[in-house]
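Q: Entry one of two.
A:
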Amino acid sequence: MVEKKTEKITTKIFVNNVLTGLAMGIVAGLIPSALLSEICKALLTRMPVFGSILQIVTTITVAVPLLIGAAVAYRFGLKPIPLVAVASATFIGSGVLKFTPQGITAVPIGDLINALITVSLAVGLVLLIGDRLKAFAPLLLPTIVCVVAGGIGLAILPYVRTITLGIGHVVDSYFALAPVLMGLLVAVSFSILIVSPISTVAVATAISMHGVASGAGNLGVVAAAVGMFIGGLHVNPIGLSLSALLGTPKIMIAAIIRKPKIVVPIMLNAALLGIFGVLFQIKGTPISAGFGFSGLVGPINAVKFMPGGPTVANLMIIGLVFIVLPFAAGIFFEWFCRKVLHLYKAEDYGTQG
């Protein structure tokens, strides 16, 4: 049931396949919502069709764990039955579904850390079983993988969620500091979280991040998106780089794991943007804190909270903070870290190991 490969699966290959598949699933599941959700919310009262589109892109976010499982299984060259078994187990262990006395409710995205653990267990179990089940594989493999890997995922979910919330509370603790320093620290924290398996939206929602804190987190995500776009242009296809910019920089997770130093210019840019975010009182919501300017979620929410709304002066500030500064500083910091400090090479941004 597993596609024959001449390449031996080493630990490095296993980790790279899982992380690359994780990024692919996240991008496929979040980009539609990031690009269309705010536009649909603004237009649905005038044109009902946008309400239907909003439902569609929201439903896709619920399917993110399924997409992650399928993408990871594909990276390992699994055939259809093992592939759907891995996808199903990942969906089960992600916590995207909640069982209550009133029925089943769905939580968009779920816990990405737990999804990462579950998909690793599921694909590892499939590789361990191999062709041992022979003709009984269609009957037994999905059951074994879903019950074992999915069951373990469900069992550890409360503990992993505690860790995720703990990270959120660490970020929340910055809020008690001086405003400028808080903006810097929150922006840097979110610039790191957005290029990890952790959902920035989940963290921001868990700690009810709002106001200037949300704006700082938002700008940290912008710094990561711009940094991955600028660095990725050296070696990756333009479409992939645009996905990191307009969709989510999580698509670069595999490259970051291989060469963590490529996040240094992102952190420097995030620190600068966090300071300007506080100075210009850029605000937002828990959702906008995790999206950056994907689908204009960040800028639209920032304008809503600015005195006077979308005035010319406010739009100029938005353009400065969300476009001019991120790109100008991003280009400089990427050049400085690569050419002057020699922290990494241009090819380290490549998404393939």
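Q: Entry two of two.
A:
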Amino acid sequence: MPDSRFFKVAGPFTVADLARIAGAVPAEGTDPERLIHDVAPLSAAGPEHLSFLDNRKYVDAFAVSRAGACFVHPDFAARAPSGTAVLVTRTPYKAYALAAQAFYPVPPPSAGIHPSAVVDASAEIGEGCEIGAGAVIGAGASLGPGCRVEPNAVIGENVRIGAGTRIGACASLSHCLIGERVLVYPGVRIGQDGFGFAMDAAGHVRVPQLGRVIVEDDVEIGANTTIDRGAGPDTVIGRGSMIDNLVQIGHNVTLGAGCVVVAQAGISGSSRLGHHAVLAAQAGIAGHLTVGPGARIAAQSGVMKDVAAGEEVCGSPAVPIRQFFRQVATLSRVSRADRGARDKEE
């Protein structure tokens, strides 16, 4: 269960409230006024808890759960135990996420500037902003209403940050324009020099990086991720994109709307990802490539050529996923045959 020292629960909510929040439909006979006080996994839920079933592997656990209410796909609603209020939806996990947000809303910023923060006199601080201990806000910077800048974060000169954005502890931002409701987690680096230089035997020559980073609305950027500013064109992170921890995004990269980039992945300079592309953990994309909308790159893949829209690739070098598994199967057969031949020789 959530630890009350760290997480403050709201509510309770009626079953009707939860159905409305999540866009679900209460099953026939469900009491719409039943009160639900918290969320919990199926295995631990009691009569006052809300849970969800999104994976057929857990149907048996659902059938014996004591949960007071549960979001369930229509295919599994008949397996509900007696006493559980069934909320039917084709997207149970999304429904649960919406309801959990209602139970555990993000606390609003505590308006004010900590005495140890350093805020330049020319910076514009919107109404209701919270500036934490040791934070630095540079000359000409602008924060929209309701922003939170956590301790020791650094906002560089002339950086623009939209309303409701949160900048995590020890993050640093320069040469960037940040949209509204963006979550920048601790240790993130946005807008530092891109990795650009002319190679020369007499000594490499640094190329000035003269672009910016543009982060659109509703983006999340995970802890210790780095996003380099452009060399001339801007680096752009499309609205609603989700970037995990420890990701490297090079200069001039463009992510379309709703992209997902998972931990320890890297995108080399000037590559472009179409909207809702997915780059799984530890995958890498070489420079100047295009990954089409909706494409999916498997974990630890090395992408060395363009990927078409909607295509799924795997391996290094990355190939269409069906081809990858045929290669794996062929290699396995060859290996078994070779072992068999050696056994006969012995």
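A: Comment on entry two: The chain has a mean pLDDT of 95. The first strand starts at residue 13 and ends at 14.
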